[in-house]
Amino acid sequence: MLKQLKRFGGDALLYALMNVGTKLVAFLMISVYTRYLDAAEYGVFENIDAVTNLMTFLVIFGTDSALAFYFFEKKHESRKMDYVRNVLLFRFAVAFILYLLSVVIGSQVSLLVAQATGYEKTVQLAFIVLLLESLITLVLTYFRFEFLTWRVVISTVARLGMVALFSYLFLRYWEQNVDMIMFGRIAAASIIIVFLLPQFKNLITFRFDKKLMKEILIYAAPLVPASLSFWLISASNKLILTGFDGPGAAGLFGTAVKFATVITLLTTGVQMAWRPYSMSIKDKPDAKKIFGSVYIIIFAIGMFGLMGIATFIPAIFKWMISNTEFHPASVYVPLLSLGSFLNFYYLIISVGLFIKKETKPISIQFGIAAIISLILNVVLIPIMGLWGAALALTLSYGYACAAIFIKSQKTYHVPTPVGKLIFMFITSIISIAAIQYILDFSDLSVWLVLVPWAFFLLTNGGVLLTLRKKGRTEEAA
Fold it and tell me: Which residues cross the membrane (predicted)?
C-alpha cells in the first residue's frame, strides 16, 4: 500500500507544483486585466468565459471519465489507443460545429454569450480558443493516463505562461479590450499544438468506430447533466448578477471567484492524479483502505488551505489589484473558496460510483444542486447582492458533495470516520468565520487571528492524531 501511495503522492506533487506556477501566473494576470479593463468590460469578459465554459462541457461530454475507465480496463488494453483517437475526433467535431454557429448567427450568439451587443468578433475568437484547447486537452489527458507527468507539466506551464505574456503585450501595446485576451490565448494554443504535432499524428483518425463510440457515450452520457448542472452552479450567477446589477457586478464577482481558486493550488494537482491512480489500483485487495486514507488526508489539507486563504487573501488582494474599483470583492473570497473545495472534494469521495460504473447519481444530485442554486440566486441576489451569489454557490456544492458521498458509500463502501470529518468541518468553519470577522468587519488587532488558528490546530490536529493512533492499533492487531 505504501508503494502505491508514494506513486500517487509523487504524481500529485508534480501536478500541484505545476498548478502553483500556473495559478500564480493567473493571479498576476488578474492585476493586468483589472488595470486595463474597467469593471463593466471585465464583467463582459467573465460572461464570455462563463458561457464558453458551458460549451467546454458539451465538447468533453463526459468522455474524460469514460476514457479513464476504458483506458485502464484490462480487456480493452489492446484497443486503448482507438478509444483516445475516437474521443479526439468527437471533441473536434463538436467544437467545430459550435464555432460555425458563432459565425453563422453571430449577433444572436454575441447577445447570448456576452450579455451585450457588439461582441460578435470577440465571441468568435473565444470559440476558436475552445476548438484549439479541446485538442490540447485530449493529448494531455492521454499523457496523464500514460503517467507521463512531466510532459503534462511542461506543456501546461508553457501554454499558460504564453497566454499571460501575449495577453499582456496585446493589452498594453495594441488595444485595451477583451479581444486582446482572446488573441493571446489563440497564439499560445497554436504554438503548443505545433509542438504536439508528432503526438497528433498518432492520435488522428477521420472515421468514428461506431461500436466503440457507443460504449464511450453510454458511459459518458449520464455525466453530462452533472456537467451542465455544475455550470449552472458555478457560472450562471454572473449572468444573473448582470441582469440585476449590470456587468460591473459580474466583474467584481468574477474577480472574487478568481481569487477563490487559490484553493486549487492544493486541489487540481490531486484531482489530475486521482482518476488514473484510483482506477489503476481499484482491483487491489487494500484499495478501500487506501481510498479511506486519501479521503481524510485531502480533507485535512483542504481545511488548512481554507484557513490560509481567509488569513492572507485580504492583504494579497489589495496588493495585487491597484484599481480600487475592485477592492470590495475581497470579502467574498473565503466563502467562495469553501465552495471551490467542496466542488473538488466530491470527485475524491465518489470513487466508488466510477468504479462500479454507477455515474447516473452524480448527474441526479448535481441536477438537484443546480435547481437549488438557481432558486437561491434568484431569491438571494436581489436581497444580498454578491453575498447572495457566493452563498448560493457554496450551499449548492455542499449539498451535492454530501449527497454524492452518501450514494457512493452505498454503492462501494469505503471505511470513513464520517462523524470526525463533520466535527473537523464545523470547527474549521468557525475558525474561518472568526478570522474573517477580525480582518474584514472589525477594528480588532490582526494578531487576534492567532486565536482561531490555535482553536483550529487543536481541534483538527487532535482528530488526526486520534485517527493515526487508531490506525496503528489496527495494524498491530
Answer: 12-34, 54-72, 92-113, 125-145, 152-171, 183-204, 216-233, 253-274, 294-317, 329-355, 362-380, 386-406, 418-439, 445-467
Contact 320, 35 (CB under 8 A): no
Q: Where are the alpha helices (DSSP H) in 385-417?
A: 386-411
With beta carbons less than 8 A apart as the criterion, state whether 374 and 389 touch: no
The count of other CB atoms within 10 Å of the CB of residue 383 is 8
pLDDT at 18: 60
Q: Rounded CA gap, 156 and 389, in Å? A: 31
Cβ-proximal residues to 245 (8 Å cutoff; 6+ apart), any chain: 381, 385
Contact 294, 221 (CB under 8 A): no
Domain ranges across the chain: 2-416
Answer yes or no: are the C-beta atoms of 141 and 162 closer than 8 Å.
Answer: no
Backbone angles phi, psi at 165, to 5 degrees: -65, -50
Among residues 138, 119, 118, which one has the least CA distance to residue 181?
119
pLDDT digits (tens, 9 = 90+) for 122-148: 888 999 999 998 888 888 888 877 777
Q: What is the pLDDT of residues 190-227, one digit of tens each?
A: 999 998 888 887 888 778 888 888 888 888 887 777 67
Strand, helix or coil for residue 58: helix
For residue 113, what are the CA distances in angstroms to 122, 126, 262? 10, 10, 26
| Closest by CA position to 368, among listed 230, 240, 471 | 230
Tell me the C-alpha distance between 183 and 125, whole Å: 7
Instruction: Give the predicted TM-score (pTM) of the model.
Output: 0.72
